[in-house]
Design a protein that fits this description.
Adenovirus Type 2 Hexon, domain 4, alpha+beta, 2 domains, globular, single chain
Length: 406
Amino acid sequence: MTMYNKLDPCYSAHKAYGVKGNRQTVVLTNDPSKISAKEILTVRFPDRSVNELIIPGTVRLSFNIELNGGTDNNRTVNNLGRVIVSKITIIMCLDNADIYMCYCDLWMTEKKRKNAAYYSIHVGDGRNTAEIRLGAADAVPAAEPDATIAALFGNLFAIPLDFEILTDHGPFYQAGLRDRLTFELIFNKPSNVIISTDDAATYKISGIALEFDTVENPELAQRKRQQLMNQTVFLYTQIVFHEMMLFDKSNTTWTINMHAKACSLKGILLLFEDPAVGAMGPDFGRNSEFYYNPLIMEVKITVDGKLNQLYENGVLPYHHWDEIVKEFAREEHKSIESPSTELSTYIRNRYALWLDRKLPGRQVMSSLSLQLTKLAQAAGRLNCDVYLPKDAQLNISEGRMMSVVY
């Protein structure tokens, strides 16, 4: 705040809020409260009090994890809260959710990542904190601040439930909906979650609970009830996992053909994982923070049979950074500091090819085609995960979720 702002005759350091209410943190044991790898967990939101609403951005699913098999040095990969879920079904269905969500979290600010111990994101030397919490034999239990942080959270971790209806549209009011908001989560296979020298290692989840903060206010509840009973729209991004394609790194040309239809396609995201290097870290486990750079030199885009879309002369290497920051380094991520992924890090081990179609989203009637020209590398398999984010809207009328358009 500058001195000049304070000269404004209407300036005040304090703000009056139109709605006040009693706040409460809620922890509800889920039914079921236990689950194993590769099983499906259903999470249903409760009605709660008629005047109680869920505060945006506070919803998460907490759990305890037990690692079985292998050695006493077993641990989990970074960002456990994301990697442990392979598929999310809400209003949309997202396969390979762990790969996409882990990449998104690499663009959080460095400060936010350092403070995300509840989700088991560790930065730099922070891995020791997670090892203490998991009881790994090679952890250093007396190291500080690891020991204090580990004592604070113990063996309790959390999965963010950050679907946009719970974050971007004001308080969520389940009591005003005749349909119950429900999450279905498929838990990942052990090899994507555990770092171990034993291929038979597995895990079990217990103590599953739904956590959120609420505010109780009759006026706010009434206004939200009226909104939901009338015709209203919730806007969100529909993330569609198109497919995982297998390429050879030694090839100099790759072609990706997609039969896709969208009223408003936001972009195309390609994430690359190298099973021989990137997905296998030094401790014989997955590296959830490594995304391979295949050295793409040019991208030609064809939409509905029309060549050279997006960039007239093709997408060249120096365009890649400009494109990726449009979607992942958005202004809300930069309110405190710059995102933790910088240009040099992006090129080395956090690479993704993002082709931005916004301003506004592009209508696609039938087909998309990408021709990628790249430098030849040593022969080897490379996984390419293709995601298509689309603008979408959930139509609500008379308290019912009527339809989805995207």
